[in-house]
Write a structure and sequence with these properties.
There is one protein chain. The protein is of the alpha/beta class. It has two domains: 27-150 and 240-280, D-Maltodextrin-Binding Protein, domain 2; 154-238 and 292-338, Bacterial extracellular solute-binding protein, family 7 (D-Maltodextrin-Binding Protein, domain 2, 3-Layer(aba) Sandwich). It has twelve helices and eleven strands. The longest helix has 35 residues, at 256-290. The N and C termini lie far apart (79 Å).
Length: 341
């Protein structure tokens, strides 16, 4: 009887241990494809601490392998890499993905907002449910972990003072987005798409272009403030959207506690980055001015003229999508309604 009782106790203990093991979440290591270099501020201030926080919050259940600077492939292929499980997470610029995330371009429109945090608030609202979520993320088999909305870019001019919107007419200006290209076409400038910061530097030093539309901190990064003398500081030329996405299959495989950690840390890092970037833009403008550059603040009258062109760009973008049965106008109106008043 004693032997039977001992065997019963041992069996119960073994089954209890097996139950505990079975209920424990399995450790997972997620590969992260990133197009940015390791020292980029969006990585240093955003992605790296975000990954560290999630690993800590999950007590090591979730770990990451980070592949910066397009080590796993070209940025234009990141969606395919995630869908084929080469990576489970990717940092993507929506402009790189062609027609895959078209509705997210609503937060890249010129004239839409002045601060990155305003753009973030509106984008999170329209990306929470509805057409943008369905078309840009769910239909692509991915989950949006957190968005990054850059502050509006500004114009830097090699020689010509920019006191009014009309001063841009006839200028050859390099731009980084199609929406800014459309804006400058409407104003009467001659825009051309840039391939990189170094290429823009070479073009302006050779006199191939008269100016450029870049983020002010990028103007400093690529030393463009040393080869330009004039510019703007409140032009609202449109910015850029970067999305940190995850394979829906990989997301579904996470434990509930891990999903909660991802959501909480995603909220934190997105807000931190928008505040950081708004401050970074202001500091960059101060540095450019300290360099001796003359940066114009458009008057209310000139801003109204600028905004009238920007609204035309926004509406053209929306109507073009509407014509393809994609709810561009609906998304644009929802985005504007969600902007902080």
């Amino acid at each position: 009887m004693k032997k039977l009782k001992f065997a019963g106790v041992a069996l119960a203990a073994m089954l209890g241990a097996m139950s505990q093991i079975g209920s424990a979440a399995a450790e997972v290591t997620l590969r992260v494809a990133d197009y940015l270099p390791l020292n980029h501020y969006l990585t240093v201030e955003g992605l790296l601490p975000w990954m560290e926080a999630i690993t800590k919050d999950t007590n090591g259940e979730v770990k990451f392998q980070h592949f910066p600077a397009q080590q796993l492939g070209k940025s234009t292929d990141f969606l395919r890499l995630v869908n084929s499980n080469v990576a489970q997470i990717a940092v993507v610029g929506v402009s790189f993905l062609g027609d895959k995330m078209e509705l997210s371009n609503v937060a890249q429109m010129p004239g839409a907002f002045e601060k990155a945090c305003d753009g973030l608030a509106a984008y999170k609202t329209v990306a929470k449910e509805g057409a943008l979520l369905d078309r840009d993320f769910t239909a692509n088999g991915v989950k949006l972990l957190y968005p990054i909305i850059l502050p509006p870019f500004e114009l830097a001019s090699r020689e010509k003072p920019i006191q009014s919107v009309d001063d841009m007419k006839g200028m050859k200006i390099m731009v980084a987005s199609r929406s800014t290209e459309s804006l400058l076409n409407k104003i009467g400038a001659a825009p051309m798409m840039t391939s990189s910061g170094p290429a823009t530097y070479e073009a302006i030093t050779r006199g191939t272009i008269d100016g450029l539309v870049f983020a002010p901190d990028s103007i400093i990064t690529y030393d463009l403030h040393s080869v330009t003398k004039q510019g703007t500081q409140n032009g609202k030329f449109g910015g850029q959207v970067v999305a940190v996405i995850m394979s829906q299959k990989a997301w579904d495989a996470l434990s509930d506690d891990a999903k909660k950690a991802f959501e909480q840390e995603g909220e934190k890092v997105a807000q931190h980055l928008c505040e950081y970037m708004d401050g970074r833009k202001a500091a960059a403008i101060e540095k450019i001015i300290a360099n001796g550059n003359q940066l114009t603040k458009f008057s209310d009258e000139e801003l109204a003229k600028f905004d009238s062109y920007a609204v035309q760009v926004q509406e053209d973008w929306a109507k073009e999508l509407d014509g393809r049965n994609i709810p561009g106008t609906q998304t644009l109106n929802a985005f504007k309604a969600a902007l902080p008043k």
